[in-house]
């Protein structure tokens, strides 16, 4: 997830956005952009743009990157989760509403949000009538259970989130459907299916975020006779309004209508376009040009235009742009198993020494990069305080760094003359390297000599994800980013900060935080049924993390998102921090190029 | 490379005849097969041993975020990474002829012959990926080759005939410029100018089968860009060779006999000039067919080069291995073909 | 020939001698040796006189010399203009677009070629320092190729038999190898620190070795061919008849005659290597930041091709000029050493 931009989590339209918008009008010609759409800059961040219910046409996505997998069980990319709603349904899902409301849950396959009993440890759902697979057979509770069981088959279906597996079977007693001894392959004890319409979850321990985990596509139903195991991602069997027509990895993908899907059975999906086409590009600049030219409607990755496209679009088509939060916090973290970062003062020295404004510029400035991050909880997670909590004065007086304070901390750390270390950074995004270079330059001023080591971005889990390897390579500073898997402090911070989540390989608690106070707070959060109390705990956790000086946050990331002129019903949802794909329609009359491009987009 | 031309052989010389051609062919085919085996072994060594030294765990990188050790182990088993290297290599060889089955954790994946490996990143057998992308690259390479042969050779011949003239100087400086520019630079420049700026050409790839006209239109820019580089090279070689040939005795003889200049150049001189050109063409085509990485990634052409670049970024070893092999194979085959053609074109060449 | 490195280096075709002038191989006579002292001047002298008359080649040579001086003196020159290649100047950057303030990529008296987008590093200083990497990789990898190619080529040609067969097959194999692909893959699995080196030094070292390693068969083939044909020549036969040892023959008789083709090939190979380095850095497997390299600059600049075209043009022109200079000079040297071309 960290390698990808695509993300989730709610956006709060910040006051900063207004400042930025003001700034923009000075450089961009008018605010009109696409005159015909009659909308403006950043319009779709908070409301629905081009509301319309016209059916038909081809919705054309362009992408520089294929999904990690189109198998609902195996994906961790935010944009893929967003896209999966076209062909998969869950018991509950996110509302199709703009902004913050889009991140609240609503029943999908289920008739309600579940009946909770047994002190919050039992959830019972009933399936709707007339929900069916693409071959017309009804979707049963057993299909839902089987789909969830697939999470246990990590040896075959690696890559996706395993929250349900961890919550429902913390001791790892079940071994997944492929090694299931029972005849119906439904041996998972924690889930019961008394009849075809009813499904009961029995949690060993209460977890107040459980419904959130059911909304992740990895909780989608999968039909046993259609499960092609490791190959399922090439041709998932549809439970939603569209089904796979063709898919050629890295080249193109096309969805067509699933005639068996009944609109009456689905309160969420509108299914306006006739087909959904995706075309993959290897040259991002080429892709941006074609988006701007109208050959394609939007970017599948929802990661923003590249620098060239950004400039063209801001100058000539400002009205077609939105500037939302991506849900990511970008930061550097300090593995404590690399000296001298075992010493809190040396960590503080780096935080004080960093030039936060320079880091922000390296990440693309306030518009394309985002506001200076002052703490680790992204503004989209409940309990976050945004820039009002700024313990290191990063967005204030010390925005260019504070050499004096940094030197003090260095002295306290016993390294008054500085030290040498290595910054580890992924090589697959120029902006990452630019960030590392900015940090390198400002650390030089306080006597810290940092080498930059670029590692293969596809190898994260084995390189920075292995504490042994980190120690061996001497990675004192790891540059990374993180977004929540679901909108809560648990969905964002537990893998990063909970001492129990330190792993031998695939670790993401790079700082190796093992703080009992933090662990206890996470446990308390999971047990807490009261929303207001949950928010308070989230704030406390964030404070604990910042007080330990484990992280140097850079930005609360933002991006410039292209909104094609043909799109109808466009809005940003905080559930996916991108346009809500499932609600989009196209106004075919608008672009003369549509027919030609849809041809080449397959 | 070109065995037929290399140095002097002290072996008795065989005159071309059907039998000689056959033995020659068999010998060359055998050599090519041996070469391919060696290449497979070297590639295997590099991709499977080097990560071991450098401490990169290939299996872990396949599992992704928050990998639990059991999952890594399972992937390792599926990939056969825990087997000794020679077993892995043998399994691979066997798969080419007999197909291969990967199984673990109740999942069985069959990869039918010819199995050149299986990509666990995209869950596809390598061979279909190669055959699917091959036509794109072939179209790119052949189209560009036609362009650069026509223009490169013509410019070279003209330069040689008008040596020292303004045309000669100009053409040769242009040719030097052509070979001195990185192709991703010319590619992006031409894309920015002709596709985005002037909008003369739309360099979008459309499969030939769907719309031949669209395919042709989309290929024009990539062809020209690629051909520019090679035409420059071919013009230089042609000029040098032609000048050389024009100084040979048999050309003087032909002229002395009073043959018209057109015949001298067109029939006699061209024939010898084409020999080295053909050698180069064989190798260049062979290599390009293995993937024009930079051209394909600049122009978003879904060919072998793009596939392999993605594979390198994803550390998708089976695909890399497959493309390396197919490239080597096409270079070997192209050379073989050229050497055989030699015997036909140039009677001086013997099947040594 | 060019083949394995396909596009970026395709030009490689140091073919001029090998293929373009078949005579060079089959009639090694051509180069050096037995043109005989017709005019009573040494072959080297003849070549020099010819080269002197070739203005294009001389221009190329002058540019090369200038580049070498620039590369060696890069830190001094950039100090003179008061610029460090790694220092950020964010005050020169428009925070909205990340592009340099002012027209023409931020060119000013202070920043002679403007500044980089995003971080505002001085492009002039980076171009100067980039020349070091380009020339270092260009020259040293050519050296590796020349040493390997000469030694193995002579061994193959001189000893013949199975030694020759083995070496020739290895050369064929290497030439059939998808080089660029292979180099990319190899560089990307290389460790970050080895032999006491870290950062960019490792990458530069690996690039030199690998590019050199894939380059030697080109020279090896020519040297082998020359050796093979010279071995049969009268003066070698004579030396042998007089009881000269093999080593002696190698050193005294063969090496001097191999100088010409080796020189020609080297000048042809250097620009190819420079382009390969640029391509590798372009693809992200070359030098590491903050080290400046032309290829890497070009790669970053592609994202600004329209909004800050100067950023793309400067390294593009640098690569072009350098490669062109080497090619012009190489052509001149070839013509000068080849008595058949009568310029």
Automatic annotation (TrEMBL), chain A:
The keyword Endoplasmic reticulum does not apply. The keyword Signal applies. Keywords: Signal. SUPFAM superfamilies: Periplasmic binding protein-like II. Residues 1-30 form the signal peptide. GO terms for molecular function: peptide transmembrane transporter activity. One of its GO terms (biological process) is peptide transport. Residues 105-499 form the Solute-binding protein family domain. GO terms for cellular component: ATP-binding cassette (ABC) transporter complex; periplasmic space. It comes from the Bacteria. This is Peptide ABC transporter substrate-binding protein. It comes from Embleya hyalina. The lineage of its organism: Bacteria, Bacillati, Actinomycetota, Actinomycetes, Kitasatosporales.
Automatic annotation (TrEMBL), chain B:
The chain crosses the membrane at residues 29-50, 136-161, 173-195, 215-235, 277-299, 319-345. It comes from Embleya hyalina. The lineage of its organism: Bacteria, Bacillati, Actinomycetota, Actinomycetes, Kitasatosporales. One of its GO terms (biological process) is transmembrane transport. This is ABC transporter permease. It holds the Pfam family BPD_transp_1. Belongs to the binding-protein-dependent transport system permease family. It is found in: Cell membrane. One of its GO terms (cellular component) is plasma membrane.
TrEMBL record, chain C:
Residues 131-330 form the ABC transmembrane type-1 domain. It is a multi-pass membrane protein. The chain crosses the membrane at residues 56-77, 133-159, 171-190, 202-223, 254-274, 310-330. It is found in: Cell membrane. It comes from Embleya hyalina. Keywords: Cell membrane, Membrane, Transmembrane, Transmembrane helix, Transport. Residues 1-24 are annotated as: Disordered. GO terms for cellular component: plasma membrane. Belongs to the binding-protein-dependent transport system permease family. This is Peptide ABC transporter permease. InterPro entries: BP-dependent_transpt_permease (IPR050366), MetI-like (IPR000515), MetI-like_sf (IPR035906), OppC_N (IPR025966). The keyword Signal does not apply. SUPFAM superfamilies: MetI-like. CDD domains: TM_PBP2. PANTHER family: D,D-DIPEPTIDE TRANSPORT SYSTEM PERMEASE PROTEIN DDPC-RELATED (PTHR43386:SF1), OLIGOPEPTIDE TRANSPORT SYSTEM PERMEASE PROTEIN APPC (PTHR43386). Residues 10-24 have a biased composition (Low complexity). One of its GO terms (biological process) is transmembrane transport. Its main location: membrane. It comes from the Bacteria.
